[in-house]
Specification:
four-stranded antiparallel β-sheet, binds zinc ion, DUF1660, about 20% strand, alpha+beta, elongated
């Protein structure tokens, strides 16, 4: 995490946000940390959320390949 992110929090790339079927995801513009949309803003995902997101991406990839 960069020093600016430590001081001010991450800077989500809202324009690049994508819905994975469960939540909106994006990355921090400064440091590239994955971020998940919460009710009151963006936060870093938990390990479980990262795992679920990876599964969603994998499922989507297979769907695209089959289509
Ligand atoms: Zn950051």
């Amino acid at each position: 995490m960069g020093i600016m992110c430590k001081l001010r929090g991450h800077k989500p790339d809202r324009g690049g946000a994508r819905h994975d079927g469960e939540d909106y995801w994006t990355i921090c513009k400064r440091c590239g940390t994955p971020l998940i949309r919460a009710i009151d803003g963006w936060r870093e995902p938990s390990v479980d959320e990262k795992r679920a997101h990876a599964r969603q991406a994998e499922a989507r990839g297979k769907g695209d390949a089959a289509a």
